[in-house]
Amino acid sequence: MKVIITGATGMIGKGVLLECLDHPSVESVLIISRSKMDLNHPKLKQVIHKDFSDYSTIKDQLAGYDACFLCMGVSSAGMNEEKYRVITYDYTLALARALKELNPNMTCTYVSGQGTDSSEKGRSMWARVKGKTENDLLKLGFKQAYMYRSGAIIPLRGIKSRTKAYQFMYDYFMWLVKLIKFLAPNSVVNTTQIGKSMINVAHQGYSKTILNPEDIIKSSAL
Question: Distance of CA 22 to CAs 5, 16, 18, 28, 47, Å?
Answer without folding.
Answer: 15, 10, 6, 11, 20
